[in-house]
Every structure is written in structure tokens, then in C-alpha cells.
From TrEMBL:
Residue ranges constituting the Peptidase M4 C-terminal domain according to the UniProt record: 176-347
Family: Belongs to the peptidase M4 family.
Species classification: Bacteria, Bacillati, Actinomycetota, Actinomycetes, Kitasatosporales
Key word Transport present: no
Record key words, sorted: Hydrolase, Metal-binding, Metalloprotease, Protease, Secreted, Zinc
Main localization category: secreted
Protein name (Swiss-Prot/TrEMBL): Neutral metalloproteinase
Species per Swiss-Prot/TrEMBL record: Streptomyces phaeofaciens
Length: 408
């Protein structure tokens, strides 16, 4: 299979395309300009990706922020702030600098990961990219943020989870390298949403039940009727308005959206179908309880590292189940939570019978994230009841066979 090299943008193409049908000529023009600039950048990314070893630049995870001064050619950007410099008078520069630092500290503190590539890659951020550019992206080397148009979208440095989202695209690229199309691409997007949300929760010291689970809640300007770009808690309900339409994300495999594997088709719906694994993570975190970056985050992080560029939803679900066992034990509350979460979004863990999985899922729900000490006993009780039902059914079938044999 041919690897897909592309930009990883926070704003999905279907939102920008929706704006092209706006009655407002200015809205249409800004959307078109953003899409044309993004298309050109994708071409540059594809060419650069063909040169092995071009992406990572050593630098002890040092941050440097550059000001594009509304240009779109990154080499012409001017230096704005570094680790050794003073705070800038430019809020966008400081927000980007702070967001890169918080995300770096999160990965180092929680997962002992040294920067994006795990080996101290320098962290370059670019602000004020283009004029009224409605997007932010990771291009394989650095993170780039537009100012937004001021009418629909605000400055993209204003959301910590957006910065962490783009940062995590780099982590995925240097670990599993999930190919950016169809299910593997949707997993790629989901990883960025998951860890983007976790960085925000970590910075606010929020438990799973305290978090809003919204991605890009500050992206839209106050005049836009929308909660966020995406909701991990309720995929499909982040927005519903005349301008953007209804949030198209599904939260179950029965509603999986089949789209063309093209740029207009969002590479097979990578920003849309990511709602399914997003919901699975949310459900896992809520069932385990406490801080979501602890057990749930570690399970997902280790599963990401164990994945490869063609990993599908089923593969990843199976891996999270296996990693939960390796980290916390077979039949632990953590593993039961993973099992039940994937089952709730329509993905059955391979090798687990549906009836047994449902019994274990019930056990996970009853535990309610309070710990795993009673998990095994509860599961054994459920399985015992299921076994008794099967045994009774076999006895009844044998009795019927006996009646037929004797002519009864």
C-alpha cells in the first residue's frame, strides 16, 4: 500500500467546503483562499516526505516561535521567541510558546517521552500564517497556526488542545505512522483528539467527569452557534447551525461514513469517523474514573506505539484490550472498561464471545471506575450464570432428542 503524506489540519475540509456555498462573498473568498493555500502546502509536504530523514531536527526539545507576518513561505518568517528569550509583546507568540511547552511537559511527565520524536526534536512553531487563514497544521517538521478570519474562526493559538492536537500528529508520525486515509487515518485524527484533550485536562488537573471533552471549544468566534469542532463525549453534537450544517461525526460502527479516499472526501472521512474511537476512549475513561491521562491514557499511548501504518479500528481495539491486560492484569477493571467501551461503539474484541463480553461489560459498568478489586469476582459470577444457562439449554435439547428417539 502507498503511504499517504499530507498535512494534518485541525479544520476538516467539509467545514471549509460548506463555507463555499455561503451567501456571503467574503466568507466564500476566505474559505477558498484557505483551501488553495492548504492544497499548495500538501504538495510541498509530499515532496519533502520523499527525502528520508528530512523531518526530525535535534534540539533538546527547545522551543522556537517564528512570526510569518501574514506570509505563507515559512523560510521568510522572522524569529519571535525562544527558550533563552524574553516574553514577547505578541499574544499569539506567547500562546504558541506556552502551548508547545505545556504539551512537551505533559508527554515528558506522563509518558517519559522526549519531544515529538522521542529523541529531543526541536519544537518550532509559526504564527500569523497567511491572511485570515482558517486552520492550523502539522507539516512533518513544525506546527503552523493561522490567525483565523475574525468573523467565524478566532486565532488558532487560543486553544491548548488544538496545539496539543497538532503536536500529537507528530508523535503518531514517529510511532505507528498511521496512514492518513480511511480507518487508519481516522485513528490518526482520533489519537490527536485524545491526547489533545488529555493535555488540556492535565493542565487544568481535571478528572474525567470534570472535563468537557470538547476539541477546539475556543476556535469559533462568539457569534457562531457551536460548542466546538468536535465532541468526544457526544460525537455528532458539537455543532448544528445554518452556516456549517450538523456535525457529521458518528459514535457507532453502524453509522460509519463511507467517503471517497480523496482530498475532497477527507481522505476517506478521517475527521468524521474519528468520532467512533474518540467515543471509545471517552467511555473507557469514564468507566475507569479519576484522571484520564493515567490508566486510559497509558493504555492508548502504549497501544499507539504497538500499532503500524495500516492499523484498523478492530486492530487497535484488540491492542488496547491486550495492553490493558499487560499493564493492569487480565480481568482488571481497566481491561473490562476497555472491553465494554469498544462494545458500546459496535466493535467486539476479537476472541471474546459476545455473551461473555456483554457479561464482562456489565461488570465494568457495575464497578463504575471504583477499582478492580471486585472486578474478577463479578465477572466470574456473570460467566457462571451464563454457563448455567448454556448447560440448561443443552440438557433441554438432549431431553427433546430422547423423546424423539423413543417416539414420545
Amino acid at each position: 500500500m502507498t503511504r499517504t503524506y499530507t498535512l494534518h489540519c485541525i479544520i476538516p475540509p467539509h467545514l471549509l467546503e460548506k463555507l463555499l456555498s455561503s451567501d456571503d462573498s467574503e466568507v466564500r473568498q476566505v474559505a477558498l483562499d484557505t483551501m488553495l493555500t492548504t492544497a499548495r502546502l500538501r504538495g510541498e509536504r509530499a515532496v519533502r516526505a520523499s527525502f528520508a530523514g528530512a523531518a526530525a531536527t535535534p534540539g533538546n526539545a527547545r522551543r522556537t516561535v517564528f512570526d510569518c507576518q501574514n506570509g505563507v513561505f515559512l523560510p521568510l518568517a522572522v524569529f519571535a521567541r525562544s527558550e533563552d528569550g524574553l516574553e514577547s509583546a505578541d499574544d499569539s507568540v506567547n500562546r504558541a510558546f506556552g502551548g508547545l511547552g505545556t504539551t512537551r511537559d505533559f508527554y515528558k511527565t506522563v509518558f517519559n517521552r522526549n519531544s515529538v520524536d522521542g529523541r529531543g526534536m526541536r519544537l518550532d512553531g509559526y504564527v500569523h500564517f497567511g491572511r485570515r487563514f482558517n486552520n492550523a497544521f502539522w507539516d512533518g517538521r513544525q506546527m503552523v497556526f493561522g490567525d483565523g478570519d475574525g468573523r467565524l474562526f478566532s486565532d488558532f493559538t487560543g486553544c491548548l488542545d488544538v496545539i496539543a492536537h497538532e503536536w500529537t500528529h507528530g508523535v503518531t508520525e514517529f510511532t505507528a505512522g498511521l496512514d492518513y486515509h480511511n480507518q487508519s487515518g481516522a485513528l490518526n485524527e482520533s489519537m490527536s483528539d485524545v491526547f489533545g484533550s488529555l493535555v488540556k485536562q492535565w493542565s487544568l488537573k481535571q478528572t474525567a467527569d470534570q472535563a468537557d471533552w470538547l476539541i477546539g471549544s475556543e476556535i469559533f468566534t462568539p457569534g457562531i452557534d457551536a460548542d466546538a469542532l468536535r465532541s468526544m463525549k457526544a460525537p455528532g453534537h458539537a455543532f448544528d447551525n445554518r452556516l456549517f450544517g450538523k456535525d457529521p461525526q458518528p459514535d457507532h460502527m453502524s453509522d460509519f461514513v463511507n467517503l471517497p479516499d480523496t482530498e475532497p472526501g477527507d481522505n476517506g472521512g478521517v475527521h468524521i469517523n474519528s468520532g467512533i474511537p474518540n467515543k471509545a476512549f471517552f467511555l473507557t475513561a469514564m468507566r475507569i474514573g479519576g484522571f484520564a491521562w493515567e490508566a486510559p491514557g497509558l493504555i492508548w499511548y502504549e497501544s499507539l506505539k504497538a500499532s503500524h501504518f495500516e492499523t484498523q479500528f478492530q486492530d487497535f481495539a484488540n491492542t488496547t484490550y491486550r495492553k490493558a491486560a499487560e499493564l493492569y492484569g487480565d480481568d482488571s477493571a481497566e481491561q473490562l472498561a476497555v472491553l465494554a467501551a469498544w462494545q458500546d461503539v459496535g466493535i467486539q474484541i476479537s476472541g471474546i464471545l459476545a455473551g461473555v463480553a456483554r457479561a464482562r461489560g456489565l461488570a465494568a459498568d457495575r464497578n463504575g471506575g471504583t477499582g478492580r478489586e471486585n472486578g474478577l469476582a463479578t465477572v466470574n459470577k456473570q460467566i457462571g450464570a451464563l454457563t448455567a444457562q448454556v448447560t440448561g439449554l443443552v440438557r433441554d435439547v438432549n431431553a427433546l432428542k430422547g423423546q424423539v428417539t423413543t417416539g414420545g
